[in-house]
């Protein structure tokens, strides 16, 4: 039952990421808007980590169609976040399970 819920939630999240992300606003966010309004948008530099980002600008590189590139980025990003969350939950479950098994006064 729990697996079905997790898979359904993942399917909904991926569906939303793929279907909605191509329609995200192309308007600049708050910080970029202020930088444009105040005239210092061109003086900023990109951090080294951003240059090497696997999905720069929220669009998957190498795909000519901008909407498809954003949809693929939404798919990959959702799977990545799910994978990290699943991994953290798996590790925590194993750590907590092993610590309760060794707790003083625990019955065997």
- Structural class of the secondary elements? mainly alpha
The level of helicity is: 55-70%
From the alpha carbons, calculate the radius of gyration and give it in angstroms: 21 Å
Q: In terms of per-residue confidence, which ranges show pLDDT below 50 for 5 or more consecutive residues? A: none
What gross morphology would you assign?
extended
Number of helices: 4
Distance between the termini: 28 Å
Which strand-content bin applies to the residues? Answer: under 5%
- The residue-averaged pLDDT reads 84
Highlighted features:
about 110 residues; mainly alpha
Helix and strand topology:
Elements: H1 2-20, H2 30-38, H3 48-51, H4 66-101
How would you characterize the overall build of this protein?
This protein has a domain at 1-24 and 61-108. The radius of gyration is 21 Å and the shape is extended. Helices cover 63% and strands 0% of the residues. The longest helix has 36 residues, at 66-101. The chain has four helices and no strands. With 108 residues, it is an all-alpha fold.
């Amino acid at each position: 039952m729990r697996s079905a819920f997790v898979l359904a939630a993942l399917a909904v999240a991926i569906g939303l990421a793929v279907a909605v992300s191509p329609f995200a606003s192309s308007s600049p966010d708050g910080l970029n808007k202020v930088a444009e309004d105040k005239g210092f948008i061109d003086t900023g530099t990109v951090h080294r980590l951003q240059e090497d980002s696997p999905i720069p600008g929220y669009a998957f590189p190498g795909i000519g169609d901008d909407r498809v590139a954003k949809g693929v980025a939404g798919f990959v990003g959702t799977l990545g976040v799910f994978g990290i969350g699943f991994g953290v939950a798996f590790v925590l479950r194993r750590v907590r399970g092993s610590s309760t098994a060794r707790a003083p006064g625990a019955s065997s």
